[in-house]
Amino acid sequence: MPDFRDTRFLTSAADAGGFPPPGGPEIAFAGRSNAGKSSALNAITATRGLARTSKTPGRTQLINFFDLPGGGRLVDLPGYGFAQVPDAIKARWRQLMESYLNGRETLARIVLVMDIRHPLKPFDEQMLSWAEHAGRPVHVLLTKADKLTRNHQNQALAKVRKALPEASLQLFSAQDGTGVDVARQHLAAWLGWDEWQPRAQK
Ligand SMILES: Nc1nc2c(ncn2[C@@H]2O[C@H](COP(=O)(O)OP(=O)(O)OP(=O)(O)O)[C@@H](O)[C@H]2O)c(=O)[nH]1
Ligand SMILES: [Mg+2]
Which residue among 50, 86, 170, 176 is buried most deeply as judged by most CB within 10 Å? Predict the structure, then answer.
């Protein structure tokens, strides 16, 4: 049975020429800068430091590819929305994202990572409509749930669910582990890991 802990860094790409040859379906983590994409990827793979995280928004400026055991990949996308960067870098970001989103046939699914305190910003809406148009299913992580009380978590969840009635959606925290197994369960189902059980990870 494949184990998320056996996920390995493959390569980083600064442009389409750097994308690795296709190697199974790709599940890409998208979201605003600093939302917690890289941290979510590390929590799901139970591998600290696999994807680089930072307090400085805009840390991930490359597309990072990770090989999953048994085929398929996780992809850590650079985040959008960091104000303090020059226009030239924003333009490069846009070009890199467009070439990946529009050109990558092996892109199978999107995990949209949103800070539970700041969901559904314009970039998130753009990503959701792109994914719908492109026929890529989306799973939403409302992350940093540890920053809110249980009550406020549920209120935020209900609010986003109301705005996105069709979406697959969950609470998540890379810090306290909320929802990590739920997210793994979704990924395992997508990957066809039929008999995968959370307990096998422990
Ligand atoms: N409390 C808390 N902090 C988190 C959580 N996830 C991420 N963080 C923090 O949020 C900051 C940004 O996390 P990253 O995972 O680097 O965010 P990112 O979305 O990959 O950011 P970019 O690569 O800049 O787009 C870091 O300081 C993390 O430690 C979480 O679930 N709870
Ligand atoms: Mg990152």
Answer: 50
Which residue positions in the chain have pLDDT lower than 50?
A: 202
CA of 39 to the centre of ligand 1 (A): 5
- The range of the structural domain enclosing residue 177 comes to 4-201
Cβ-in-10-Å burial (0-12, 13-18, 19+) of 151 comes to exposed
Q: How far is the CA of 175 from the centre of ligand 1 (A)?
A: 9
Q: What is the pLDDT of residue 80?
A: 81
The tally of domains found in the chain comes to 1
Distance CA 28, CA 39 (A): 14
CATH number of the domain enclosing 163: 3.40.50.300
Residue of 35, 43, 52, 37 lying closest to 177 (CA atoms): 43
pLDDT at res. 169 = 97
pLDDT recorded at residue 60? 66
Mutating to test ligand 1, I would choose from 33, 39, 124, 182 the residue with most ligand atoms within 8 A of its C-beta, which is 39
Q: Annotate 8-51 with DSSP letters as a single string.
A: EEEEEESSGGGSPPP-S-EEEEEEBTTSSHHHHHHHHTT-TTSS
Pairing of strands 26-31, 63-67: unpaired
Q: Whose CA is nearest to atom 7 of ligand 1?
A: 36
